[in-house]
Amino acid sequence: MQRKYILPLFLLIQILILQIMPYFPEFIERFYSNGLYGFISKFSRKILGKIPLSVGDIIYGIVIFYILKSIWKSRKLLKTEWKELVLKALSILSVAYFLFHFLWAMNYYREPLFEKMKIERDYSDADLLSFTKKLIEKTNEIQAQITKNDSLKVVFPYSQRQVFEMNLNGYKTLSNQHPFFQYTNLSIKKSLFSLPLTYMGFGGYLNPFTNEAQVNYLMPMYNSPTTSCHEMAHQMGFASESECNFIGFMASVKNDNLYFQYSGYSFALRYCLGNWQIRDEKVFDELLKTVHPGILKNYKESEDFWKQYDTFIDKGFHVFYDNFLKMNKQKDGMESYSKFVNLMVNYYKGKEF
Q: Region 297-310: what's the mean pLDDT?
């Protein structure tokens, strides 16, 4: 076989192997997520965490420039040497696909958090209503403690760097209850691509090749603790968006800082209210009347921020990412972000905040 066919063939073999992986979650959980990946992740974070700039973003920038340059240079060859160009592109894709899964994405096939934490999957309307009311009470309480006025929005007093470092407090408390949420070797950065991320409609992302957590520093700061804790959960090997929303919420509310708790509780409340808006408009309206006006002002702040960047770009990327998630065994796609309500409601059933 000629060498030029080896990597494209390897890409096909990888795709076939990955069709088998979902049938062995216990194997992936034990030998990859809690084995090989643990070493890869900690090593990457220990080395790159000391560098203030996002190495992953710089690499992405170089790769994008190289791709555009190659396309420009190859445009005249497309008619005559298109087969060679396709083989070259498939070879590059094959290597990237391997590194993507080897360095992080095998976590898509691990044991679900529902099973790991023995949390039920289903809940009733009564369960959701009870949880939402408790959530409103708690979020109101914290908002009032911070502002001393139920009509004032919370103004976040910390910098992005302070948020990243203070997140460790919440994860330390959380890991005392659940050791598998232990986080070490901080490696979270302000994304150099924050403006493009905003137009795409994302608050952050994990670079799977460098294991750096990236946060969009342009969005309202009160969202930052929960968003960055979400990305840190990805670093620990949790691939599911709903699971990372749940872990990000938990790490925020377990923090001993009121602003971080507010970030977590207000984040969770927004999802629960959104759930009720879809389920029962009348119940939603009644619940909304009990939420402090200051909290609603924070929600309006976020809504206004994202609205000013609302273009066809974010809709296109959401369609792309929706399909990307579905291809990686998250059958609900973008809707999986809201599925963490199941985890929250059932985790706190019979418990107090």
A: 93
